[in-house]
């Protein structure tokens, strides 16, 4: 008898509202042999809500390396398993990386059951540009390391997204103000999909003032979003255009634009598009 290898299903679960568990997630959680969960008690509550009776084992940052090999053995023996975290998408600032890596290296199929994440939920309602963004997750807890990371990000032109614990929100905003300036547009997305959902927009300075005077704004779960550095984007575009002009004396315009875009990070189409003069289109 040939033994088919099982599938590891990576299943996203709600970040607050229980109604956000997808129909496919329910079906998969109900039929796998075992669910590996960050916190068995929290997952048990979710399963109870949906009448799912599948057995749950703990897989968290402290035991992941020791538990993952036995889960991969079960997968190789043909069993289907699911991986969930406490909330949202596993591996996204959550455990699961070791298991997914090990399963893939063993030739096991790893399949997503996509769904909620605080990252995408916050971006989608922020009103900030999200075509390109940088997810930083949790910054280092130690003040020196956190400030060094923020200093390295000060010129970043894409929207930045941070996860933060409520008791560190004020310190994060203070560090953001020091690194990026008080005027940088920012958004606090709090308790998304829950009763006290709040999305506040303003600048780093106005949001810091609000958090200092209104203790409710640092309660619950929070995503902090900060607009990218537009001045830097303008500088990148200007140097792209300078380089394009130099190169186009030697190369065909399309090639000059490609090289200048590659070197400077400026969008190629902003340097040269057939039939369009980018300087007139600005
Ligand atoms: N894996 C999860 C995901 O897909 O977003 C995130 C897990 S991470 C350990 C928890 C952090 O996500 C919280 O500290 C907070 O920054 C953010 N978060 C989770 N749920 C949230 C919610 N309902 N509203 C706002 N932020 C949330």
Specify the CATH architecture of the largest domain: 2-Layer Sandwich
Quote the CATH topology of the largest domain. Methyltransferase, Cobalt-precorrin-4 Transmethylase, Domain 2
Order of helices and strands: EHEHEHEHEHEHEHEEHEHHHH
Structural domains: how many: 3
How would you name the CATH homologous superfamily of the largest domain?
A: Tetrapyrrole methylase, C-terminal domain
Query: Proportion of β residues?
Result: 15-25%
Q: Low-confidence parts, pLDDT < 50 over ≥5 residues?
A: none
Terminal CA distance reads 67 Å
Radius of gyration: 23 Å
Strands, total number: 10
CATH class of the largest domain: Alpha Beta
For the biggest β-sheet, the strand order reads 3-2-4-1-5
Ligands? S-adenosylmethionine
Q: Sheet with the most strands?
A: 5 strands, parallel
Q: How many alpha or pi helices?
A: 12
What structural class do helix, strand and pairing data support? Answer: alpha/beta
Helix content: 40-55%
Gross morphology:
globular
Mean pLDDT: 94
Overall description:
With 282 residues, this protein is α/β, with parallel strands linked by helices. It has 3 domains: 109 residues, Cobalt-precorrin-4 Transmethylase, domain 1 (3-Layer(aba) Sandwich); 110 residues, 2-Layer Sandwich (Methyltransferase, Cobalt-precorrin-4 Transmethylase, Domain 2), CATH 3.30.950; 40 residues. It is built from 12 helices and 10 strands. The termini are far apart. 35% of the residues are buried. Bound molecules: S-adenosylmethionine.
How would you concisely characterize the structure shown here?
The protein has helices at 23-31, 40-50, 64-76, 97-105, 118-126, 143-153, 169-180, 204-213, 230-247, 253-264, 268-271, 278-281, and strands spanning 7-11, 34-37, 56-58, 81-84, 109-113, 133-138, 159-164, 185-190, 198-203, 222-226. The protein has 282 residues and is an alpha/beta fold.
